[in-house]
User: Which sequence fits this backbone?
């Protein structure tokens, strides 16, 4: 949240445990909240409520998404290693380039040399 530092954010979460409970306290008793933290913090939280809600939504990992996945279909197969490397490098997936498996196509072409 803009204007709320790490120490204040930790203090708020220690006191209220969740973003929702912070806003419950803020709305339930503004004077008490201002006394506990400050009028400046109250104002920043009050004005930034929609940003806080959006940030939480974006940071929440959804685990209830329906997913049809067959592990057997995820196995690698013959592919153009150079084409995949260029694609990954273009989009800056450098760590994936390093972990990229060898193509059966490349293995077969090397075996054909002998």
Assistant:
């Amino acid at each position: 949240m803009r204007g709320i530092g790490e120490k204040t954010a930790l203090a708020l979460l220690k006191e209220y445990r969740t973003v929702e409970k912070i806003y419950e306290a803020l709305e339930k008793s503004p004077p008490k909240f201002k006394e506990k933290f400050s009028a400046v913090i109250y104002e920043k939280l009050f004005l930034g409520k929609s940003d806080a809600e959006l940030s939480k939504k974006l940071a929440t990992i959804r685990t209830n998404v329906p997913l049809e996945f067959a592990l057997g279909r995820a196995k690698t197969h013959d592919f153009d290693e150079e084409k995949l490397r260029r694609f990954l490098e273009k989009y800056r997936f450098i760590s994936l380039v390093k972990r990229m498996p060898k193509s059966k196509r490349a293995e077969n072409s090397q075996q054909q040399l002998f």
